[in-house]
Amino acid sequence: MIDNTETNNTDTLGKRIMALRKAAGMTQEQVAERLGVSPQAVSKWERGLSLPDISLLVPLSQALDVTVMELLQG
User: Could you give the dihedral angle defined by the CA atoms of residues 9, 28, 21 and 24, in that order, rounded to the nearest 10 degrees?
Assistant: First the structure.
């Protein structure tokens, strides 16, 4: 689990995804590759233009080394 106050104080899911991704030292491309989605999809999540499909929440949380609850609630 990543213990970083910056990742815990984000007010949207997209901002949490971005903060957690950066804290994990991953690029959008690396996250996209692990999840089988496009880098553009990850970018849209981070900018709040769309949300990850529910089926991706567990793999996304695993890629970012947090629980699903931590991912969703901050």
Answer: -160
pTM: 0.83
Instruction: Tell me the DSSP string of 5-45.
Output: HHHHS-SSHHHHHHHHHHHTT--HHHHHHHHTS-HHHHHHH
C-beta separation of 41 from 50 below 8 A: yes
In the structure encoding, which two tokens stand for residue 65, read together? Answer: 């080394």
Of 12, 13, 16, which Cα lies nearest the Cα of 4? 16
In the structure, what pLDDT confidence band is assigned to residue 26 with cuts at 50, 70 and 90?
very high
* Residues contacting 10, CB < 8 A, separation 6+: 16, 18, 19, 74
Q: Which residue has the tokens 């950066």?
A: 22
Element (H, E) at 68: helix 68-73
